[in-house]
Amino acid sequence: MKQPLGVILAGGQARRMGGGDKGRLMLGGRSLLSHVIARLEPQVAALALSANGDVARFVDTGLPVVADSVAGFVGPLAGVLAGLDWAHEQGAETIVTAAADTPFFPCDLVPRLMMAADGMVHPLVLAATPDSERGRNRHPTFGLWPVALRDDLRRALEGGLRKVVLWSDQHGGREAMFEAEPFDPFFNVNTPEDLAHAEGLL
User: Fold this and answer.
1) What distance in Å separates the CA atoms of residue 166 and residue 186, rounded to the nearest whole number?
2) Residue-by-residue pLDDT tens, the chain, 202 positions
3) CA 1, CA 94: separation in Å to the nearest integer?
4) Which of 44, 63, 154, 196 has the fewest CB within 10 Å, making it most exposed?
5) Using a CB cutoff of 8 Å and minimum separation of 24, what contacts does 180-186 make?
6) Angle of helix 109-116 relative to helix 32-40, nearest 10 degrees?
């Protein structure tokens, strides 16, 4: 499998943080987005942002910005689709997505997702961590996605599907399990309290 392209999902509306771009919140003197870029960029062949609205607000990142093609802020799958369409234009076979508000995700995310996809016709793998109550906790904004299924995903979104795991399960999606000690590396910043907690994890 060729090295995937990376897509940072930055299209959320951040209602619990008062709106705006959560990725611009500061953590340890750097934005959340800069933490995410620094972790994902070395693992992928090229990188883009999935975001809606004025692209000029991301010009300082130097990254291409791809917008949802499905209207109405329908969730992370729309960002995945935007990334797959961008990757298709680049001639790529797969993308790996990461959320813009999750600064501590594993530095070996991409190779472990790729290993979990070994032998799959359409590589589709979501990150997961152990959960004492449910057995495991899937992280649907962190995944390996095949460009070959982009039109299927488009039809699913246009038909009203919104849950990532419903679509991934339809296509035999797998999971790559990551450790959750000393804390879940997929911890994301949704509230001011989360941001304070993240400061303590630096």
Assistant:
1) 20
2) 789 999 999 975 544 444 567 888 899 999 999 999 999 999 999 999 999 888 888 999 999 999 988 877 778 899 999 999 999 999 999 999 999 999 999 999 999 999 999 999 999 999 999 986 777 899 999 999 999 999 999 999 999 988 999 999 999 999 999 999 889 999 999 888 999 999 999 8
3) 9
4) 196
5) 180/129, 180/130, 180/131, 180/137, 183/104, 184/129, 184/137, 185/104, 185/105, 185/106, 185/129, 186/102, 186/104, 186/105, 186/127, 186/129, 186/139, 186/142
6) 50
> What tokens were used for 107?
């530095």
DSSP alpha helices (H): ranges in 26-122? 32-40, 76-90, 109-116
170 token code pair: 């339809």
Question: Which distant-in-sequence residues (6+ apart) come within 8 Å of 178 by Cβ?
Answer: 106, 109, 112, 127, 128, 129, 185, 186
- Find tokens 């508000």 and name the residue: 101
Q: How far apart are CA 105 and CA 195, in angstroms?
A: 15
Q: How is residue 136 written in tokens?
A: 């495991």
CB atoms within 10 A of CB 160: 7
